[in-house]
Amino acid sequence: MIDQILYFIATLVCAGYSMTQDIQLPKWQPHDFQFKSDAKHENPFRVIFSATVNSPDGKSFSMPGFYDGDGTWKVRLSPTLEGPWSLKTNSDDPSLDGKSISFTCVPNNDPKAHGGLLVDASNPYHFVYEDGTRYFMNGYECDWLWALDMDDPNLPTINSFLDTLAFYGFSDIILNAYAHDTSWAKGKTNEYDYGPPPKYAWEGTNENPIFDRFNLSFWSHYDRVIDAMNRRGITAHIMIKVYNKMVNWQAKESDEENLYFTWLIARYSAYPNVIWDFSKEANNEKNLDYKLNRFKFISDHDPYERLITNHDDKATYDTGVYNSVLDFRSDQQHSHWHEKILSQRKQNVWPVVNVEFGYEHGPGGIEDKTYGVVQSPEEVCRRAWEICMAGGYIAYYYTYTAWDIIKPNEIPPGYAYFKYLYEFFNQTEYWLMEPVDELVSDGYCLGNKGKEYVIFLNEAKSFKIKLGDGKFNARWFDPFKGKFIDAGVVTGGEIGFIPPSGFGNLPIVLHVKLKL
């Protein structure tokens, strides 16, 4: 109801009515200001339209707008500072040019609203929200999420799916802005196959696209998907392009490609839950200058400065070229998970995410798969712990939701395992701990020396750890059951631990924290 009232007020103001009532928008809440024009345009998507936005601290920025059908152009904003704001439109259509609106940013009472995601300046291997709230990236890849419910604005399947993912602690969803089909499940292989998707992102077809005319039905649906994620506090890691999903893309750096990048920024940069990723499988793009150009284009046009990364471009990351260009590293690593993260953290001080390290099989076992490679849920979980114990972050894959074959109602065992991992680390001060494997005789160790330690063993066995001075509370943790077992109080120095019985060759975790 509140959004409807704000929409009505904004519409009246944009139509030129004099209003004494103030428009009030919650901090970090996206809102559309709508402007009408009766002018006839050969291509309304080509109309120049933006707004100069003034914030309470005296700063201003330019926000690109977008055409949204029926003679309506929009500027989508989310105020980031409480107090009085204003905007003034700029357009080559006189009916859209020079329109002014004032509004007030008020506190946001939504407990899931924390502002945009940032790299923590004090602990730069980690993330933090704009309001200082901690953020542990527990990712989930669902490339074709937006292909569900395309003909139902109520999003019954997507909402239920997102509720499930939020319950299991997945804080980040990696998805494509658009993807067409997979080579290993080409065409409609069954009722759950969404490649090619029900709607195309542009007018025309994938074979004959009209790149300067967007399919508004597709993008209105995509709006609802991003909004549904935002309302649940789930980050949308949007991969702008994809190099192996049969998409017929625009010519590089063409007017049509710039229009596409601007379109995405105009529609989604106001959402505080958005992360930009140039492309899935970006290593397939060999032109480094082109990739650098696209990163600069995003930075130059996104006034909200959302985080930018690049999916799986390890050779280029390792050269250091991206160190001052991107905000964090996203790579696929399919072996030596712990060692790779340690090495990548040495290459540059920023968050490191292994975005693809394992694929959980379906309920039928190791042969139940939609892609050529799968692992058991226990193996995928074990790899995730190895990555986190090196100070990295993770992204989970399930064979029936990662790509174009989607069965969102299934609850694989890995969901619970990743929930336990997520909840465990959120009970620690993980952002203050560093990899200190040298402190343990076996396994991996994260530590904030003298204060807190986490030890992970790939199989339960006796080991020793060198603790700082003082007394420490110790407790074992079962990563597959999510249960703690008290290990008593120990005194600092070199201490030996013997895991409780019953674990056999299964992984086990020990949490040691200074007794206050």
- Percentage of helical residues? 10-25%
Low-confidence stretches: 1-20
Indicate the radius of gyration in whole angstroms: 24 Å
Q: What is the mean pLDDT?
A: 95
Overall 3D shape: globular
How far apart, in Å, are the first and last alpha carbons? 49 Å
* Largest beta-sheet characterization: 8 strands, parallel
- Beta-strand portion reads 25-35%
Strand tally, please? 27
Structural class: alpha/beta
How are the SSEs placed, and which strands pair?
Elements: H1 2-14, E1 24-26, E2 31-36, E3 49-54, E4 60-64, E5 66-67, E6 72-77, E7 83-91, E8 100-106, E9 117-119, E10 127-129, E11 134-135, E12 138-141, H2 156-167, E13 172-176, E14 202-204, E15 209-214, H3 216-231, E16 235-242, H4 255-268, E17 274-280, H5 288-301, E18 308-309, H6 314-319, E19 329-332, H7 337-347, E20 352-356, H8 377-388, E21 393-396, H9 413-425, E22 434-435, E23 444-448, E24 452-457, E25 463-478, E26 483-497, E27 508-514
Parallel strand pairs: 1-8, 12-13, 12-21, 13-16, 16-17, 17-18, 19-20, 20-21
Antiparallel strand pairs: 2-6, 3-4, 3-7, 5-6, 7-8, 9-10, 10-11, 14-15, 22-23, 23-24, 24-27, 25-26, 25-27
